[in-house]
Amino acid sequence: MARGTKRWLAAIGLAGALVLSAAVPAQAAAGGNNDFACRPSAAHPNPVVLLHGTFATYYEDLNFLQADLAARGYCTFSLTYGAYPQFPFAGGLKPVAESSLEIKDFVERVRAATGAAKVDVVGHSEGGLQSLYLAKMQGIQSEIGKVVAIAPPTHGANASGLLTLAYTLLGKSTWDTIVKTIGLPIFADELDGGAAIVALNTGPVAQPGIAYTIITSRYDELVTPTETSFIREPGVHNTYVQDSCPFDPVGHIGEAYDPNVWHLVRNALDPANATPIKVCAVGSPG
User: Fold this and answer.
1) For the domain that residue 127 is a member of, what is the CATH number?
2) Which InterPro entries match (predicted)?
3) Residue 240: how many other CB atoms lie within 10 Å
4) 281 in a domain, yes or no?
5) 194 falls in which pLDDT band (50, 70, 90)?
6) Phi-psi region of 54 (alpha: psi -120 to 50; beta: other; left: phi over 0)
């Protein structure tokens, strides 16, 4: 099934799932997303920067989560990173290191506009990897309070064995050459043995002073084995969606749209006021 179709089906499933999710407070952050006049409140002092996944954009992937956070009083910001000028309709295609520079500049713009000392970063899929890479590799550790990564390919994705098959049939160097030639270097970068994965995992991933939460699904079909999302280092909270909602079948794309995931993200951003999920939604598989 095409990725766009899966996202469309996930969005349809979202309508029913929202009925089961907790009620959203009436107050909203002024202007919603990317309101550079927004001033963080005492309750939520860090602006939240949201990072989409591969082939997505700021307005299609974490946009529903962003709206949920804004409605709860957060100043929220997002950008489409890693897009080519000749095709701006899909982001996350450039090498991680290149896109990370765009994200760093955006974070510093958000901090300058809002007056906040730190931002919190929430990312899905490649966006989760970008949040980890940004915190470690761009020298702005002191500007980041929390990282919440949803299904990141922290140690490289295997895509249910497809990468192993490609390497076996073509060889890694040939695969890398092909994806770079067709303008999709991210397919070499974020997979097992990719440059970004090697750089991220050389030495500790988690950086001092940053609180990390990794959220993924036992049924994620793209970042596999699912354990590869987790960071087994001190100070990192790793959790499966099914630890809270055992019967949620949510898959990789569906994790961006799943109210259970949103609840876990809110808990990670505001641990002092964390609450259990009382009624579990049913996320989209795949």
Assistant:
1) 3.40.50.1820
2) AB_hydrolase_fold (IPR029058), Lipase_EstA/Esterase_EstB (IPR002918)
3) 21
4) no
5) confident
6) beta
Asked if residue 130 belongs to a domain, the reply is yes
In a domain, 67, yes or no: yes
Domain that holds residue 162: 42-273
Q: Which two tokens stand for residue 227?
A: 């354990």
| Chain position carrying tokens 């290191």 | 97
Lateral strand order in the sheet of 211-216: 76-78, 48-51, 119-124, 144-150, 211-216, 236-240
What are the structure tokens assigned to 69, written together? 């956070």
* Residues paired with residue 157 on neighbouring β-strands, in sequence order: 191
Q: How confident is the model at residue 157 (pLDDT cuts 50, 70, 90)?
A: confident
Q: What are phi and psi of 95, to 5 degrees?
A: -55, 150
Report the pLDDT averaged over residues 67-89: 94
Over residues 241-260, the pLDDT tens digits come to 999 999 999 999 999 999 99
Cα gap 221→219, rounded to integer Å: 6
Domains in the chain, number: 1
CA atoms of 201 and 230, how far apart (whole Å): 12
Rounded CA-CA distance 40/173 in Å is 47
